[in-house]
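Appendix C reproduces, verbatim, an entry submitted by the partner laboratory led by Prof. M.T., so that reviewers can inspect both the input and the predicted structure.
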Amino acid sequence: MMLDELALLFAQRAFPNDIKKAVLEENILGKSTASGRSLSLQRLTELYCFDNSVPMFRVFTALCRRDPAALPQLALLMAVARDPLLRASARPVLGLASGSQLMRDVPRNAIASVVGDRMNEAVLDKVVRNTSSSWTKTGHLVGRTLKRRAHVRANQTAFAFALWLAHKAGFGGVELFDNGWVAALDLDSSSARALAERAHVAGLMNFRKIGDAVELDLSPLDRMT
């Protein structure tokens, strides 16, 4: 996820201004070579888009500025949306019970099923290490060598973004509270509805319960951009 690099960009207020200049010319990421700077920019762009004409990037940026503490979970959601390899690793991680050990072959096989024979063994192993590192930085995994599942506490700003992404992916009604985006924040349907009420109070969305049905309006997020 390159979370450390992303945090540096926000800390230096390079978002969403001239990110290319900040990385390549000003070297705010502290890379030792020009090729390292270029590769970092390329990978960050693949993960986070860096294009103000794309609504997802505008909402992501607005929410990161509004709530810097939400950055790890916001970055996870954005990266999962854009990176098929990180997305392939999600089910093996999220499906683990809290405290259970992540066996290396499980995410490896999941990623291998996506890439087929396009990666050799060494590259595949590196991808597995990188995805495990990403899930560790977000708090879903703990431990250095042996990775175990940990339960994360969903940030309400990140939760609002999860609902926004789910809505754009075609989910509606009660399905908005029961999908992969919400599951990535370790929320079940019941806890997601409770968090929606808090997000409503915070002005992140308009949420109303009508019996067993719900009304949800996410337009406040679009108006932030």
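The radius of gyration is 18 Å. Additional entries are available on request from the coordinating office.
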